[in-house]
């Protein structure tokens, strides 16, 4: 496929060829002997004019045919170029659509990652009374109620963690939702 500039250069070369041919016809046309008779000179000039006109017409026709062929090639090249550009634009549009979808997904993921977590509801603690039995340890009592030993000590100040007194009443801190 030729570029538009190559086609234009081809047309210019064809026109230059036509002008060169005209110049050669002019240079290499042998001189005609003109008769001395007055009627002969006019008829010979008329014949020469017709011959030159016929040659010029033939060259014009050749030039027109070459120009038309070059114009047809140029039109075809332009159509092909338009189609190629449209295809490229369609592909770019498709790529932009995919990128836009990816950006949307990333923005949605970013919103999900940076969203503030819901504020935790304040929990209310209820205290359940418990009487320590012989052999109970704070760890065993905490495990029994599903709380930490530290929470049990915090709710019962003054409780000896090494040896809790059997029969002593303590408070078990439990969340209100339980």
Structure characterization notes:
- The protein has 178 residues and is mainly alpha-helical.
- The protein has two domains: 4-114; 125-175, Membrane-bound Lytic Murein Transglycosylase D, Chain A, CATH 3.10.350.10.
- The protein is 66% helix and 8% strand.
- It contains four helices and two strands; from the N terminus they run H-H-E-H-H-E.
- A two-stranded antiparallel sheet has the order 1-2.
- Helix 3 crosses helix 4 (149-155).
Helix-strand category: mainly alpha
Shape: rod-shaped
Largest sheet: 2 strands, antiparallel
**Structure annotation, total helices:** 4
Average pLDDT score: 82
- What's the end-to-end separation, in Å? 82 Å
Question: What is the topological layout?
Answer:
Blueprint: H1 4-28, H2 38-114, E1 125-131, H3 138-145, H4 149-155, E2 169-175
Antiparallel strand pairs: 1-2
Keywords:
178 residues; mainly alpha; 66% helix; two-stranded antiparallel ribbon; 4 helices; Membrane-bound Lytic Murein Transglycosylase D, Chain A
Quick structural summary:
This protein is mainly alpha-helical.
């Amino acid at each position: 496929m030729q570029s538009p500039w190559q086609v234009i250069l081809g047309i210019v070369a064809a026109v230059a060829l036509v002008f060169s041919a005209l110049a050669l016809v002019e240079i290499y046309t042998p001189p005609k002997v003109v008769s001395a008779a007055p009627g002969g000179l006019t008829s010979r000039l008329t014949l020469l004019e017709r011959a030159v006109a016929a040659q010029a017409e033939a060259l014009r026709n050749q030039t027109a045919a070459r120009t038309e062929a070059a114009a047809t090639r140029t039109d075809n090249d332009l159509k092909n170029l338009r189609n190629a550009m449209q295809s490229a634009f369609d592909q770019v549009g498709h790529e932009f659509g995919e990128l836009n979808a990816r950006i949307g997904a990333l923005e949605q993921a970013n919103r999900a990652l940076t969203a503030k977590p819901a504020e935790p509801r304040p929990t209310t603690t209820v205290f359940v009374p418990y009487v320590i039995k012989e052999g109970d340890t704070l760890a065993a009592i905490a495990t029994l109620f599903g709380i930490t030993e530290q929470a049990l000590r915090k709710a019962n100040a003054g409780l000896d963690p090494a040896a809790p007194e059997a029969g002593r009443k303590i408070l078990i801190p439990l969340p209100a939702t339980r």
